[in-house]
Amino acid sequence: MDPNNRGPEEYGHDDDGQAPRSRPPREPLTTDFGQHSPTLARTVQLVSGDLLLTVNPVDGSEIEICPPGERPPRPVKHGAAERAELSRATQAPVPPGPAQARLPLLERQEERERLVRLLARGRSVRLTGAPGSGRTSLLDAVADDCADLAPDGVVRLSGYRRTASDVLYELFAAVYDAPLYRPERDELLRHLNEIGAVVVLDDVEFGGASLDELLDATPECAFVIATTPEVPAPTADSLLEEVFLSGLDRSGGLELLERAVGRVLTEEESNWAGDLWFESEGLPLRFVQAGALLRQRDQLSAAAGAVDEFGVFQSVPADAPFDVPFDAADNPEIPLPSLAEGAAPASLLASRLSESARATLRFAIALGGEVPHQAHLPALVGDTHADAALAELASCALVSPVGSRYRLAAGVQAQLEAAGYADDAETQALAAAQHYTWWAGHPSVTPERVCAEADALLAALGVLVPLATAPRDEEEEEESAAVLLARTAAPAFAGGLNWSAWERALRSGAEASQLSGEVSEQAYFHHELGILALCGGQLDRARVELEASIGLRGALADKRGTTAGRRALTLVSDRSGVVLAGVGATAGEEVSESRSEESASPPGGVPAAFLAERSGESSTLVTHRSEPGHAAKRVGVASRLLSGTRRNLVAAGAGALLVAVLGTVVTLGATSDPNNNTPAEEVGVNPSATQGAGDDSLGADKAKKGGGDSATGAVSTPTDPGPDGTYGTSDDPTPTEVGRPSADPSGTKGSSGPSTSPSKSPSTSPSGKPSTSQPPSSEPPTSQPPSSEPPTSQPPTSASPSTEPSTTDSASGPISSAPETVISSAPASSAEAGSPSGPVI
Predict the structure, then answer these.
(1) Which of 205, 498, 624, 802 is most buried, most CB within 10 Å of its CB?
(2) Residue among 181, 43, 53, 46 at smallest CA distance from 571
(3) CA 283 to CA 822: how far, in whole Å?
(4) Are residues 65 and 570 in contact, defined by beta-carbon separation less than 8 angstroms?
């Protein structure tokens, strides 16, 4: 035991600073109780086009450009022996037990010869028939006849739940020896052009343009395509030959029924078979099932006759003829099935089967018609001999072969559901999902075997995904069965190159994990979907899926998963030519504010004129607003708030400094003139824009030259604009007396309100001489005409008559006794600094 991780026998012994005591080796009988090393994850490395894909079921698959040394050699074709082995593998397995007699192909010789003749000339044929018309039996016979027609032999494929692209890749895998290699589209088409084979394609579910795509990709192949009337027809330009398969006539139906029963029919049975032929329109499947009904009736009759002859408690002789059918006339207590039971015989047939066979039917109903492989039946049913149930179902024609597996025959599922076999479908699907999860994750099971059971696994997922719910309380920690199955089967599908099943499993798993609230599993499925889209060349979809996965894993602090997602996203960026923000950042890296602000693109995009100047083209350019990347999103809300606060403080300080400087400049300019010249006498605060009284000059020019009156040297005082928008001077006929309260209601003597601005020049009389009876005003007088309303209130000021402002210290006279006007050069707070007004007086 590790001294840091004590075993049960070391509890209670404190560490005394000495080395841990050595213990004798364990007994052989106790070795199984120790901790086993965890099973290594089954990883598969394969090549898809020019990409090297490592399927990692733990943290997510990794993808990179395939190094030159890892590129597989050019695929080569299989030999004749290998093609024969692959052909046997694509057929349904033979049920265990005694070999069943193969029914002959009746009334199909004309269609058989026509198909072989068309295929020999290299023509492709579309065989259309209703479900149960015997299309698969006819294809088996045609495949045997065309074994030597093409250089690459006969290739048998299944189109059930397959797309045209899936069929093309399966055709490539059936002809070429290319393990763990999936070529890209262009290379796939080059290899398919070299295939010359007769392709037998059964249960096709696509038509139209998809069918034309399949035929155009394989110009050297001749197809015989079996489908149902519900499938879309080929296009008008298609070169397919159409062959329709009808039902049997009455004589053929009776002959097939006799072959199925193994004896000659009685007159009553012949009449019953005639009514059945009219109702079923001669479909061979109905006569095979009717033959199974008659065989069961014979067995029941033989059992009843044996009981009457030998008794219940007597032993039956070993040579008793149990296999010889009894005539119905000898056992009138077992009547013939009714016409309704003959038309829908599934319920009656299933009621006479063994318990294992009925349990198998319940699993098949729960899985949407997919019959589990016979090797899984003992574990699912709980009976060691349950594999023999497949033979019972096949002998009764309740199942039919579809590719390498079995499905319920046409119409059987609806009949059994009406009989109550689907009452516990959810329970059966859950049991099947748990079994397949254990089986698909076992190290001894290869991905190819999992792909062979893909339809059954996907059917179980289809049933369980809508049932996935979030846990009701914290104690429920079990993962969803659908999530576990998808998580286990998806890597196997990827390693087995069944990428259609891989995509379906990933999408089912993503939906189930979202419903159950399992964020880590949801991130894994989104990552795998992004990898799959990247392998398929769908870069936009890959980017969306990978970004979703990175976001979820970032919330969970999953460094390894985030690193894998960023690497894949970098490859997407390289292939698309679009630089993604934050792609280069590693997992867990903190992105600084300066980096996110400086590296981000402008909100409106790059200016068109700049790009045009750099490229030499016209300036017409459509730009788009770039979305913030992953690195920009990592900047937290707190960082942005702090950044905005710092900006506000800097702006407030700058405003305060600007106000202080302006106030200082005004104060120095008003008080530091060495010649005792008032600045108002040089250039007024509000220069006059009107002409002078005696010439055509402006009032400001007069002030600059020395005054408006040559005798006295008085300076005209500028005034505020009047109601007409013009500026007046002190030469107006009715000057306004400012700075002293007046009782005149007209307001011509002065204003009674406090003054809010300093005076820059003294008041003058109308004659241009200095007025000695009025004190200097603290602000320029207004030029508004007299009115009945009092002007704005100014505080009353008192000063000695002087032509100098009260705020200056003149050498020619004493300092004015009026209160001085104080100019504040700095705000009291940042709020005052941010105000748009000037200095506070």
Answers:
(1) 498
(2) 53
(3) 114
(4) no
| Bridge partners (DSSP) listed for residue 243 | 127
pLDDT in tens, 707-735: 444 334 444 444 444 444 444 444 444 44
Classify the C-alpha dihedral 553-554-559-560 as positive or negative. positive
Mark out the alpha helices in 517-592 (DSSP H runs).
Answer: 519-535, 539-555, 559-576
Distances in Å between the Cα of 506 and the Cα atoms of 513, 523, 745 are 10, 11, 93
639 pLDDT more than 50: no
Q: Specify the residue for token string 């097939």.
A: 256
What tokens appear for 43 in the block?
């990883």
Any idea what the Cα angle at residue 213 is, between residues 230 and 136, rounded to 5°?
A: 45
Per the CB < 8 A criterion, the answer to whether 587 and 559 are in contact is yes
Tell me how far CA of residue 126 lies from CA of 156, 213, 227, 410, 456, in angstroms.
15, 15, 7, 20, 28
Q: Using a cut of 0.70, tell me whether the model's pTM lies above it.
A: no
**CA angle (583 as vertex; 577, 584 as ends), nearest 5:** 105
In three-state form (DSSP H/G/I as H, E/B as E, the rest C), the secondary structure along 615-658 is HCCCCCCCCCCCCCCHHHHCCCHHHHHHHHHHHHHHHHHHHHHH
Q: Which of 502, 494, 428, 489 is nearest to 463 (CA)?
A: 428
**Residue 419 burial by Cβ neighbours in a 10 Å radius (0-12, 13-18, 19+):** middle
Residue 461 CB neighbours (<10 A) = 25
Does residue 528 contact residue 60 with C-beta atoms inside 8 Å?
A: yes
**Token pair belonging to 72:** 């597989």
Query: Residue 310: what pLDDT?
Result: 43
CA–CA gap between residue 720 and residue 729 (Å, rounded):
9
**What are the φ/ψ torsions at residue 177 (nearest 5 degrees)?**
-95, 95
Smallest Cα–Cα separation from 299: which of 321, 319, 332, 323? 323
Token pair of 437, please? 């999860």
Tokens, residue 672: 């530091």
Question: What pairs with residue 158 in β-bridges?
Answer: 202
Pick from 747, 754, 758, 732: which is nearest to 791 by CA?
747
Euclidean distance between CA atoms 815 and 809, whole angstroms: 6
For the cut 50, the answer to whether the pLDDT of residue 811 exceeds it is: no
Q: Which ranges constitute the DSSP H helices of 281-338?
A: 284-310
Q: What's the length of the chain?
A: 841
pLDDT at 723: 45
Which of 342, 360, 365, 356 lies closest to 419 in space, CA to CA?
365
